[in-house]
């Protein structure tokens, strides 16, 4: 009887122990399934927010529409209008004028050298805001939205002083150089321009820039170069003796700033700034600096 009672008591004790053990495991399992604490939730939310893209801020900035830069396309080998100086910096009459406009507007000037025969592609694609670099408007009036003209220019022939070439008729059978896609080339190919004269040449050879053409003229590989008078004067002065500009001119023309067709808003803003620079003397100071005073034609309004 005592043995039976003892067994019963031991069985009850074991049952209580087993129940207690099961209860502990169940509580632990429940605890692991409880939601995160408030602090943990906040940490997770912060992490999620950090991982979200800042798209709204970027869209707001893009939607502001405020112009901060002014990108000018220019020929980097076209002094005195645009070129690289001895310090490796792009400068010139046109680029300094563009910088003065940017100073008035609070814009950053972005100087973008371009291949001259790719200028239309650069402008129409939006890579540049304008073409500003001794850009002839005559014959291109309908192709761009133009600023007011600011320089009177002529197309001339440059020859070696020792070549014995004194008149345009002396160029018959000669090799004449010209820059590709330039106003001089257009003039020499135009039936209403100087094509009749060009037909007398032995060859009309195109160059990417006038520096290369002058190298060939000095070497005797070509006999003359058709080019703008302002660029011709600068080249001759910088290279010293040995070259001359022929007295007979091919034509006269005007320079202006070319904007994408229809961009009258930007054109009007730049025109207004040019008037301010003319009024305060900046325009004339730059023209004198680059020895263009006798060629400028910007009129006060």
TrEMBL record:
Annotated region (Disordered), positions in chain: 26-64
Keywords: Signal
Gene3D superfamilies with a match to the protein in the record: Periplasmic binding protein-like II
InterPro entries: Solute-binding_3/MltF_N
Keyword RNA-binding: no
SUPFAM superfamilies cross-referenced by the UniProt entry: Periplasmic binding protein-like II (SSF53850)
Pfam families per record: SBP_bac_3 (PF00497)
Domain Solute-binding protein family 3/N-terminal residues, every copy: 69-294
SMART domains: PBPb
Basic and acidic residues: bias regions: 26-50
Leader sequence segment: 1-20
Superkingdom of the organism of origin: Bacteria
Protein name: Amino acid ABC transporter substrate-binding protein
Organism of derivation: Ruminococcus gauvreauii
């Amino acid at each position: 009887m005592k043995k039976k009672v003892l067994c019963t008591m031991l069985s009850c004790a074991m049952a209580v122990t087993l129940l207690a053990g099961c209860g502990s495991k169940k509580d632990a399992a429940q605890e692991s399934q409880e939601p995160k604490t408030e602090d943990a939730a906040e940490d997770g939310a912060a992490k999620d927010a950090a991982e979200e893209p800042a798209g709204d801020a970027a869209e707001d900035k893009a939607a502001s529409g405020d112009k901060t830069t002014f990108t000018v396309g220019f020929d980097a080998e076209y002094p005195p209008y645009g070129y690289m100086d001895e310090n490796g910096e792009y400068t010139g009459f046109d680029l300094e004028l563009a910088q003065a406009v940017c100073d008035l507007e609070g814009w950053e000037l972005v100087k973008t050298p371009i291949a001259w025969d790719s200028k239309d592609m650069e402008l129409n694609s939006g890579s540049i805001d304008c073409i500003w670099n001794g850009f002839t408007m005559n014959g291109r009036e309908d192709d761009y939205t133009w600023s007011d003209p600011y320089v009177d220019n002529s197309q001339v022939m440059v020859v070696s002083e020792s070549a014995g070439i004194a008149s345009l008729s002396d160029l018959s059978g000669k090799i004449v150089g010209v820059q590709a896609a330039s106003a001089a080339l257009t003039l020499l190919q135009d039936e209403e321009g100087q094509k009749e004269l060009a037909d007398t040449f032995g060859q009309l050879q195109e160059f990417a820039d006038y520096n290369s053409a002058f190298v060939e003229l000095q070497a005797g590989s070509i006999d003359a170069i058709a080019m703008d008078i302002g660029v011709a004067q600068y080249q001759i002065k910088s290279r010293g003796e040995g070259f001359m500009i022929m007295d007979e001119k091919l034509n006269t023309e005007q320079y202006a700033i070319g904007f994408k067709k229809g961009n009258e808003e930007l054109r009007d803003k730049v025109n207004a700034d040019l008037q301010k620079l003319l009024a305060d003397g900046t325009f004339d100071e730059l023209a004198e600096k680059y020895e263009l005073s006798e060629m400028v034609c910007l009129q006060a309004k």
